[in-house]
Amino acid sequence: MQQSVESLVRLLESYRGRDKVIRTVCYGSQLVGGALTQKAEADASSQRLGKSLLLFSAQLSHCRTVLRLFDDLSMLAYSHSYGFGASEEDAGIRWISVLTNVADQLYYPCEHIAWAADAELIKVRSDKWWLFSTVLWGTSLLLGIFRSLRVLLLLRRKLKKQERAEGGSRRSHLNREIRAELLSIFSCMADISNAIHWMPPGFLWAGRFPSWLVGLLGTTSSLIGLIQMNTSSSELSDSTVMSSQGDIN
């Protein structure tokens, strides 16, 4: 019990860890709140609880938006350190990663302008800037799927070579990497489904998801993110992990 509490405290003490926890609670509240408010047979107290959870979820989402006002420099530092991916062995992964960094970098100023417009700090319409930020987020997620598919292809090739060489420990490591990439694809697919839902009406299934489904997809991707972060911290404690992209929305 004490070890679990200590792990949670360490997670909350880091910016990325705290953001992932807030994101999980945000979408979890939307899932439960949406389910409660949608039940026609629910009593008045359940309806009130559901509405309160949806309001709580909206406040947590706003909290994350405000915190992202300070993410531009960390994203810029990551993009600068990655550059054109000279350290990458595969050209496909390199250029997909570069395009992902560009989309992530552009996302932040668009969201900042939209937030400032909603807060009436600047005199512009926020809707188009929210649209730009959603498109950039969806683009980043789609590129993330392409990157994971490319990585999977390369990992499977390596796995076949190891099977011929009978390298047991190396095969086990490759299988873990394959499972991690499959989880990343599943997480990106859940998030991109929500990104399409937040597009203008008429675009695929935009605006058609009930609150509980948005919460379910977001909670799923958030839990995957927490699992991956925990795995990364335990297996790669001596290396730097990822950029600030991850769970933008």
Description:
- The structure is a single chain.
- The protein has one domain.
- The chain starts with a helix and ends in a 14-residue tail after the last helix.
- It is mostly helical and 249 residues long.
Which structural traits does this protein have?
Peroxisomal membrane protein 11C; 249 residues; PEX11C_met; peroxisome; globular; mainly alpha; PEX11
Mean pLDDT: 89
The geometry reads as globular
- In whole angstroms, the N-to-C terminal distance is 31 Å
Structural class: mainly alpha
> Per DSSP, what share of the residues sits in E-state strands of 2 or more residues?
under 5%
Helix content: over 70%
Low-confidence runs of at least 5 consecutive residues: 236-245
Number of strands: 0
Estimate nothing, just give the exact number of structural domains. 1
Keywords: Membrane, Peroxisome, Transmembrane, Transmembrane helix
Protein name: Peroxisomal membrane protein 11C
Transmembrane segments: 129-155
Subcellular location: Peroxisome membrane
Topology:
Blueprint: H1 2-13, H2 15-38, H3 44-67, H4 72-82, H5 91-118, H6 127-165, H7 168-197, H8 211-235
Helix pairs in contact: 1-2, 2-3, 2-8, 4-5, 5-6, 6-7, 7-8
Brief sketch in words of this structure:
The chain is mainly alpha-helical and 249 residues long.
